[in-house]
User: Fold this.
Amino acid sequence: MKYSELKKYIEEGKLDTAISKAVVTTKITEEKKRYLALLEEGVKRYGEDGDWHFISSPGRSEIGGNHTDHQHGHVLACALNIDNLCCVKASTDNMARFKDSRFDEIVVDLGNLSLNTEEYNTSNSLVRGIANRLNELGYKIGGFAAVCDSRVLIGSGISSSACFEVMVVEIFNCLFNNEKVNPVERAIISQYAENVYFGKPSGLMDQMAISVGGFTGIDFKNPNEPVIENSKFSFFDHGYELALVNTKGDHADLSHEYAAIPNEIRAVSNAMGVKYLRDKEPEYFFSHIKELREEVKNDRGILRAFHFYNEDERAVKEKEATQKDDADALLKLMNESGRSSFMFLQNVYPASRTVSQSLAVGLAISEKVLNGQGACRVHGGGFDGTIQVVVPLDKVEEFKKEINAVFGDDAIMFVRVRKTGCQEVIC
Assistant:
């Protein structure tokens, strides 16, 4: 849509319905200002000519299946109403340009799609990797110019990297492929770029939840063809707010702690003669713990495998609870998941850092306030950063007071589940 026409559509409220699906709450007036400001920024930077599009890519929250995806297990995640919004148009010079106000402009020559290891861990590598994979799959690619307003911030615990990746795939999908790339394939392409071009091993949960939207139950038994089931469950409709709490722990590099989880689990699976725990029935593991301990000689690895088998089954039950709209069952399972992560997976604090346990402190405060209601658990990878708390509406103010007193006024992010995944915002 041309600049002047798109601006008029926003001002006259013709995009209100589409915007409301992304923001979920009633803050339409505030969001319209955001859309208009981004459009003006795009025109100022890249010129008024061409057809402009808005693309909204949400953050995600893991609900169940903590560290199960890398073992080809089940997970339950949901898209959130906090998004990265870009305003984009096609260009004719085969250059991909992407400007976020927080960073320098990304410029990628799409005439060169070769893997460049010197680009590891950069946004440029993700754009190049996505373009390359789309091209290999027979989809069209082309130059574009985009400006972005990011609300899914780095380190926020709601997956900024996957949010960016899926958005870039959708830019190519919207501008050049008439939306032929389906949400599942869009997520797989995003993961490819992160694994191969960015140089970071990762599962597929983040990209899939962001791409598909709503509550997404995912079975990763075959990672190349994951089984997806959706539901439209809402915590708010059942009288709860979903809160993510940044406990502001020590930000020392914890890559070795994250890597230790799959590495230790791999030793257990190898001892059972399989590559992934999902490939061996749980009954075998539970009946051979003595022998496995003797072979692996790492009790933490055994406990982490113990967590996987129970958590994998629990994630399926959590998915079923959302499908049945059974909030009580879901909350009970979420609390069980949190206890399992703390006791068996052991990703609430690093074993080497006993004096710094901010996640555990946050969970302790949350349990005190909830007093048997709602749920709380570690969020995502763990060891540092974020906890997830489902708070009854009548306890929200008390929760805010108790958490803010310890972690600061900016610690809590209240979010709602967004039923739509990454998409172009159109009438």
In short: The mean pLDDT is 94. The chain has two domains: 3-233+418-424, 236-415.
